[in-house]
Specification:
Helices cover 71% and strands 0% of the residues. With 269 residues, the protein is an all-alpha fold. The relative contact order is 0.13. The protein binds fe (ii) ion (FE2) (2 copies).
Length: 269
């Protein structure tokens, strides 16, 4: 069961004058990817068939992710009455196919799948933390605070499962690094760009590069160095590397520069 509900959000405190259009566009896109959690649950249940305890955790996880989508969708419709959440979601769900079709793990092992999930939850937890810190709009801030807390718990949940499977499967360090790098690269795949399109400009033809750039500039523009440090620390920990090491610090600086470049990609052309 989710640890909070829509009734815990102070909807009446909404201050439209303090909401930037960039953040609204991101929140609407995030509503669609979050609400689509059932697709991932189906894959996880197949990959982890026989692990009933984990299947139960995944069921709870799906409910929380769908609640994130519903809350962000309600927020999007409140801030932009032309936003039809259900219609946008249908467009997204019908048009987006998981890498590999969703019938099997594309990571090659259960440990690899769990490590990839840790990378995703690291990304979402940092994204909502950064968005909550960036916005002055009180309702969005409250929503981001609640969701970021859930995402961090999800990270812990997948990390605990990873620590059960890793001793059995013994995923090598190069293999773990391949999973992490592979999953980070997928951030540029269709999912976020297509969600941005469905949520914000479904009246025009889908232009993946354009939507990817619009999404990246707004999203990476939210990040500060301490977010990059946290992202790298959580990822290192999941990969079995020391988050306090010099390599971790060096990687954080590298990641921070890369985020800065992604936040300033020109939008024309
Ligand atoms: Fe979520
Ligand atoms: Fe999550």
């Amino acid at each position: 069961m989710p640890r909070w509900t829509q009734d815990d959000i102070p909807w009446e405190a909404f201050e439209p004058g303090r909401l930037s259009q960039d953040l609204l566009a991101l929140a609407k896109a995030a509503a669609l990817t979050e609400y689509n959690a059932a697709q991932y649950t189906r894959t996880l249940r197949k990959v982890f068939s026989g692990d009933d305890a984990f299947a139960r955790l995944v069921g709870d996880w799906q409910v929380e992710e769908e609640q994130h989508g519903a809350v962000l969708g309600r927020y999007g419709a409140m801030a932009d009455p032309s936003f039809d959440f259900e219609r946008s979601f249908r467009l997204f769900r019908d048009g987006y196919v998981l890498p590999g079709g969703g019938d099997q793990s594309v990571r090659g092992s259960r440990a690899g799948e769990l490590l990839a999930r840790c990378v995703v939850e690291t990304g979402t937890s940092s994204f909502y933390t950064a968005m909550g810190e960036a916005t002055g709009e009180p309702v969005l801030k409250a929503i981001c605070h609640r969701i970021a807390g859930d995402e961090y718990r999800h990270y812990r949940m997948f990390l605990e499962a990873l620590r059960r499977y890793q001793p059995r499967e013994g995923l090598s360090l190069p293999a773990r690094i391949r999973v992490v790098v592979g999953r980070i690269r997928e951030t540029d795949d269709d999912e976020l760009a297509f969600a941005y399109h469905c949520a914000n400009e479904s009246d025009r033809p889908y232009d993946r590069d354009r939507c990817n750039r619009l999404y990246s500039v707004s999203a990476y523009g939210l990040y500060r160095y301490h977010h990059a440090r946290k992202v790298v620390g959580m990822t290192f920990k999941a990969a079995g590397l020391n988050p306090q090491s010099r390599l971790s610090e060096w990687t954080s600086r590298w990641a921070w520069r890369k985020m800065g470049r992604r936040a300033s990609v020109p939008l024309s052309g």
